Amino acid sequence: MDMRVFDLFKIGVGPSSSHTVGPMLAARRFLLECQRLAEVKRVQVDLYGSLALTGVGHATDKAVLLGLLGETPRDVIPETMDDKIADIIASGKMCLLGEYPIAFDIMDDLLWHKQETLPAHPNGMKFTATRRDGSISSQIYYSTGGGFIQSAEEIGHEPLVAPVIKPYPFSSMAELLAHGERSSLSIAAMMRANEAVHEGEAELNVGLDAIWHVMRHCIDTGLKEEGILPGGLQVKRRAAKLWRAAKETVAALPHDPIHKVSIYAMAVNEVNAAGGRVVTAPTNGAAGIIPAVLRYYAKDCEQLNSEQGVRNFLLVASAVGMLCKKNASISGAEIGCQGEVGVACAMAAAGLTAALGGSNQQIEAAAEIGIEHHLGMTCDPIGGLVQIPCIERNGMGAVKAITAASLALHSDGLHHVSLDQVIETMRATGFDMQAKYKETSLGGLAVHVITVNHAAC
Ligand code: SF4
Fold it and tell me: Is the CB of 26 under 6 A from ligand 1?
């Protein structure tokens, strides 16, 4: 499998990896690959399927415009985004990649096709550039979850570049466990060896520490910010108030330490819902679970934590995320929320088990438990916003991840259902799920709670 830890953990902006991060990257990539860009006089963007149905709430329109300006999710300054968009709308102009001015009318040049889905994936988009001589360049891209994008030619095919040979290649957990048996290495050590074909140990550690730094910062921001989240649902940010109360009544109830974990997760997802800086883990909608459980490990598991434990957590979590991405999906538009919150829960459970010294078998058990109890979970965000049920759902997912790790750590690692079997079950369940439950806001909570915003969608 040619994925890396940093493919699963990407620094970006909210509120959605598939509907914000992916489209921003696709828009920029289209222009970077477009011939004779200086001669382009018009760019048209067509959004299809789930991108069209929930794109307003997920800020897909803003993401596409920022991508056309040349911005990237990693480097764009969240506080400047709204001004840049307002400027395009007010002036009717934009500078492609910051250099080539064209006229751009958001009503005529950005089109939403809510009744139409492109063939390869629910999150499809088409970019068309017209030059002054009338010639046209056009390309379809798919946003396949977690900020991954593929062109129409790439999707469903192995990359043309020769794969990097890794010492412990794996396409299933069974293969990874077998490598572990033969080498007597932990999953974290094998992941580290696989990453070493890309960069040295010191660089890898710097990258992992940077991911943890952004996650920590995101939690801290969310624990301070108050007010109403954007989008029109009038959802109040709750994490800061809950955090103040939790600090004042330390361990008033036996389960209060666990209560804090759900607050950490909600803090991250409130930052995400507000379009702030987050790490996809493995998606933005599920971005709160891994930081929350990691903070629980790094702050609340005193005597048991270490800097290297944090890194091992991320490496092992990424192994589980890679398997889910390869053998099922991490896209809510493809298999529902089981593929986002369920996968994040499994990743966090595996990471925590590893960091607390669990065996490879216990890590597998923890990940399996994490997914098993999210099987069938639909994606039905109210008003097309990544707020309800997403924010609280991350709090629940984080707590479940700790429970899964505990069950695994207190077991001998033997269990009836393997991780590979539960991933295949998630894939099959997701593909059987009706489209209205897959990030379309046409079913579930999204239609049983009537909102102003939903009516506008
Ligand atoms: S319901 Fe789950 S999959 Fe859907 S947008 Fe929210 S977090 Fe993502």
Answer: no
In terms of domains, do 266 and 304 share one? yes
CA pair distance 307, 320, nearest whole angstrom: 21
In a domain, 36, yes or no: yes
The pTM is what? 0.94
Lookup result for tokens 């102009």? 93
Q: What is the best residue among 278, 386, 396, 449 to mutate for testing ligand 1's pocket, by most ligand atoms within 8 Å of CB?
A: 386
Is 12 part of a structural domain of the chain? Answer: no
pLDDT in tens, the chain (457 residues): 789 999 999 999 999 999 999 999 999 999 999 999 999 999 999 999 999 999 998 999 999 999 999 999 999 999 999 999 999 999 999 999 999 999 999 999 999 999 999 999 999 999 999 999 999 999 999 999 999 999 999 998 776 667 789 999 999 999 999 999 999 999 999 999 999 999 999 999 999 999 999 999 999 999 999 999 999 999 999 999 999 999 887 667 888 888 999 999 999 999 999 999 999 999 999 999 999 999 999 998 888 999 999 999 999 999 999 999 999 999 999 999 999 999 999 999 999 999 999 999 999 999 999 999 999 999 999 999 999 999 999 999 999 999 999 999 999 988 899 999 999 999 999 999 999 999 898 999 999 986 644 433 2
Phi, psi of 169 (to 5 degrees): -70, 145
388: Cβ below 6 Å to ligand 1?
no
Ligand 1 binding pocket includes 340 (Cβ within 6 Å): yes
Is 265 a pocket residue for ligand 1 (Cβ < 6 Å)?
no
The angle at the Cα of 54, spanning 81 to 344, to the nearest 5 degrees, equals 85
Both 228 and 320 in a single domain?
yes
Q: What is the CATH number of the domain that holds 90?
A: 3.30.1330.90
164 C-alpha to ligand 1 centroid (Å): 33
Cβ–ligand 1 distance for 330 under 6 Å, the answer no
Both 269 and 132 in one domain: the answer is no
- Asked if residue 9 is part of any domain, the answer here is no
Residue 394 CA, ligand 1 centroid: distance in Å = 9
Answer whether 272's CB lies under 8 Å from 288's CB. Answer: yes
Domain that holds residue 143: 17-151
Does ligand 1 come within 6 angstroms of the Cβ of 279?
no
Which residue lies with its CA nearest to atom 8 of ligand 1?
285
**d(C-alpha 209, C-alpha 215), whole Å:** 10
